[in-house]
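Field log, afternoon session.

UNIT: design team B
ACTIVITY: writing a sequence onto a fixed backbone
BACKBONE:
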C-alpha cells in the first residue's frame, strides 16, 4: 500500500473501528492494508495514490454493469434535481417493483428496504408471523446479513475472521437458529422430525457465495422445497447475490425451484443502498399496513436508489446480456484455474455464470467444511501478488470473484497474464 492510502488508513482507524465500515474491507485475513478508493469507472478503480486496479469485487456484487454506467448516471441525474427523499410513495417504486416481479418467478409482491440485512431479517420475521413458529434453519457458511437470528455459523466476514457466532447476540435468539451443513438433505429431514411444528422457515442462498461460491444444484433445492412444504415451513431464498446475477429471475429461474419468499439486494440498487423481499400475495399481505407483521423504513424506496436500480435492471433486460456475462465469467475463471494448473497447483473452480471462486484444494468444494479446508495461506500469497500487479480481488478466500459487463477481453487477458506471473512466482517460493 502506498503513502496516501497508508495515511488515510491511519486516520480512519482513529475514528472508525478497524478503519472500515464493513469488516471484510480491512483485508485483515490477507495481511494487506486496504487501498483507499478515490474513483471508479467501468471495470477500473483508482486509489488515493493514483494506482489503477482491474476490479473483480464490484462493490461485493452490485456493480454488474461496471462503475458509472451511462444509463445509471443518467437516471440519477434525472432524479437528483427532483429531490433525494420524500418519505412518501412514488411512481418509481412501482416501476422497480414491477421490473422485479415480472422477472423473479415466485414474487407477486415486493417490499423495498435499504440493505440485504434488512431484507433477510424482515423475511424471517414475516415467515415467523405467517407460521406462528419461532425456529429457523440456516446453513453453515451462508451469509444473510448481520441480524441477530442470522449471525450463526455465517459466511462472509464472519467466516473470513473465523468468528463462530458473535458476542452481543442473545443466547435465547441464537438458540432459535439451527445451523446445518449444506448439501445434506437427510440432516434437514431429521431436524424437521426433531422439532415437529416448530420450524418457521428454511433460509438458504440457493447458490451459496459467501464461503466462496458453492453451488448446491437442483436436487438439494428441490429437497428443501419438498421438506418445507411437508412440514408447514416457508422456504426463503436469499438471492441478494444470485438475484439478477445468474439469470434474469435469479437462481430460482435457473434451477426451476420456487421459494415462498425471496430476498434481494446488491444489483437491484445499481450501487445505491437497497434491499427487497417478496413472494406470494398470500404472505406479503400479512405485512403492515395490510397485515399485522410490522416492518418499516424512513428511506425505504428511496427515489435515487429506485432510479439507479431500475436503470440497472433495464440494461440487464437487453437480449444476450446473460450469455455475454457467462462468456466473460468462463473466460476469466477458467483462465485463472488453468494458469494455476499450468504452474503445477491443485485448484478447484466453482462457477455459475459471471461469479465464481477458485479454491486452493484438490477436493470438490460442496459445503462450508470443504471450503474451509482449502489453503488460506496460499490464497493470501496469491492475493498479494495479484494486488501488486493491479488486480483487485476480494481479500478473502471466502468471497466470490465477480465479472461485469464492463470487463473487456483486453482486461481479462491482462488479468490472466498477471495470474500466470503470480502462480509462476509462487511455484518458485
Ligand atoms: C451481502 C449479502 C447480504 C447482506 O446484504 P447487506 O446489503 O450487506 O446488508 C445478505 N445475504 C447475502 C446472500 C449477501 O450476499
Amino acid at each position: 500500500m502506498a503513502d496516501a492510502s497508508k495515511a488515510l488508513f491511519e486516520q480512519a482507524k482513529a475514528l472508525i473501528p478497524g478503519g472500515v465500515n464493513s469488516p471484510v474491507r480491512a483485508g485483515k485475513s490477507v495481511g494487506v492494508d486496504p487501498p483507499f478508493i478515490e474513483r471508479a469507472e467501468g471495470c477500473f478503480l483508482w486509489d488515493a495514490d493514483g494506482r489503477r486496479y482491474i476490479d473483480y469485487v464490484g462493490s461485493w456484487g452490485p456493480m454488474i454493469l461496471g462503475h458509472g454506467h451511462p444509463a445509471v448516471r443518467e437516471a440519477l441525474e434525472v432524479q437528483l434535481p427532483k429531490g433525494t427523499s420524500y418519505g412518501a410513495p412514488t411512481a418509481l417504486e412501482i416501476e422497480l417493483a414491477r421490473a422485479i416481479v415480472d422477472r423473479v418467478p415466485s414474487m407477486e409482491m415486493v417490499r423495498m428496504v435499504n440493505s440485504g440485512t434488512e431484507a433477510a431479517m424482515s423475511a424471517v420475521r414475516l415467515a415467523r408471523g405467517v407460521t406462528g413458529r419461532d425456529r429457523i434453519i440456516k446453513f453453515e457458511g451462508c451469509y444473510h446479513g448481520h441480524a441477530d437470528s442470522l449471525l450463526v455459523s455465517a459466511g462472509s466476514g464472519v467466516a473470513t475472521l473465523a468468528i463462530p457466532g458473535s458476542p452481543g447476540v442473545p443466547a435465547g435468539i441464537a438458540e432459535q437458529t439451527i445451523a446445518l451443513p449444506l448439501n445434506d438433505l437427510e440432516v434437514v429431514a431429521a431436524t424437521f422430525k426433531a422439532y415437529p411444528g416448530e420450524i418457521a422457515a428454511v433460509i438458504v442462498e440457493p447458490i451459496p457465495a459467501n464461503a466462496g461460491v458453492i453451488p448446491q444444484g437442483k436436487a438439494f433445492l428441490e429437497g428443501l422445497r419438498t421438506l418445507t412444504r411437508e412440514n408447514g415451513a416457508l422456504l426463503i431464498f436469499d438471492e441478494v447475490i444470485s438475484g439478477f446475477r445468474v439469470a434474469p429471475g435469479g437462481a430460482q429461474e435457473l434451477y426451476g425451484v420456487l421459494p415462498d419468499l425471496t430476498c434481494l439486494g446488491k444489483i437491484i440498487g445499481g450501487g445505491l443502498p437497497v434491499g427487497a423481499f417478496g413472494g406470494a400475495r398470500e404472505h406479503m399481505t400479512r405485512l403492515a399496513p395490510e397485515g399485522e407483521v410490522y416492518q418499516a423504513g424512513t428511506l425505504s424506496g428511496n427515489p435515487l436508489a429506485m432510479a439507479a436500480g431500475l436503470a440497472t435492471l433495464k440494461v440487464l433486460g437487453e437480449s444476450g446480456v446473460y450469455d455475454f456475462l457467462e462468456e466473460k465469467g468462463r473466460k476469466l475463471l477458467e483462465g485463472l484455474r488453468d494458469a494455476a494448473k499450468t504452474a503445477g497447483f491443485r485448484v478447484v473452480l466453482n462457477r455459475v455464470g459471471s461469479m465464481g471462486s477458485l479454491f486452493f484444494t484438490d477436493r470438490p468444494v460442496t459445503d462450508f467444511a470443504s471450503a474451509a479446508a482449502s489453503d488460506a495461506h496460499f490464497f493470501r500469497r496469491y492475493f498479494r501478488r495479484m494486488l501488486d500487479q493491479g488486480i483487485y480481488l476480494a481479500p478473502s478466500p471466502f468471497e466470490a470473484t465477480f465479472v461485469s459487463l464492463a470487463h473487456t477481453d483486453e482486461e481479462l487477458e491482462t488479468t490472466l497474464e498477471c495470474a500466470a506471473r503470480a502462480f509462476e512466482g509462487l511455484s518458485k517460493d
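LOG NOTE: The mean pLDDT is 96.
NEXT ACTIVITY: expression trials, pending approval
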